[in-house]
Amino acid sequence: MQHKGVLLAIVFSLAIFLGYGDDATNYLNRGIIEGQKGDYESAYADFSTAISLKPDYVQAYNERGLAMGAMAANNKGPDDPITQKAVDAAIADYSGAIELDAKYAPAYYNRGVALLVKGDRQNAKSDFITVTKLKADYMLLAQAYLHLGELQQVEGDKAGADYYFSGAYFFRANSEVVKQETNGALADFNKAIELRPDFTTAFYDRGRLKQTMGDFNGALGDYDTTIKLDPSWSAPFMNRGNVKLLLNDADGALADFDKAIALNPKDAKAFMNRGRAYAILGDTARAKADFSAAIEINPEIQELIKVNGYSVDGLPLQQ
Length: 319
What we know:
It is a single chain. It is built from 16 helices and no strands. By secondary structure, it is mainly α. α10 (200-212) runs antiparallel to α11 and α14 (268-280) runs antiparallel to α15 (284-297).
């Protein structure tokens, strides 16, 4: 089974803010532009200047490592001595970034890729695992999981490979959700679940996607599965209740909101949504009590209650 399609190459940063910040930032930004244009030597020089001006510049170390890695890729091959020396220099820069900020996920990922070039699969695997434990953007996580899947595949561990490949599809799907690429996201969630049938969060996120796409019955099915896999999680009860309201099943929604509140009694939105269900059922007193409880937990939710068409007294607002 091939999973290469999950991977998108890590390149120089996309966020450019020329003309802002100190001189070190301006050199960094110019280097990023040069790197994107393929002028890696100039990029390397600018990142080096940024570091000389600001020795603790974590991103500059990471970007300089990328520039060196890109120059290494232009050499004769991974076994060429010049290439190996460049890769070592890139690894040193990624390690420098990590020494300055032990939670900087891009440096761990890039160092892992460089270590793979050197044939050091074990330490590369350690770096990719670290990425999965840190706060990182969805595509970086997708790529780390993809590499881990490939490493498990090399080791003959099919179950481990499927686990990581599933994560790669899952995080790419979430990246596509952010970009509103709904069809691609749905296909990737499907693939993640196919590879890992007990992937609770994938069922939940696919349910949310189906809900936004108007596939309410499909969303209900995914929330049902999520709840079977983890009955202690309040969020799928909340979302299932909201879908039931959309399907005019206020009684069913009420039961789900009851469960969500029992699991998370500090969830203001759960009280608000149960209040909506009571209001639809004509129980104004209980609707008012729930709206009041929601406001007590989070006063800002009062405006959201109005947006949903109700007064804090549990009565529909006049149209």
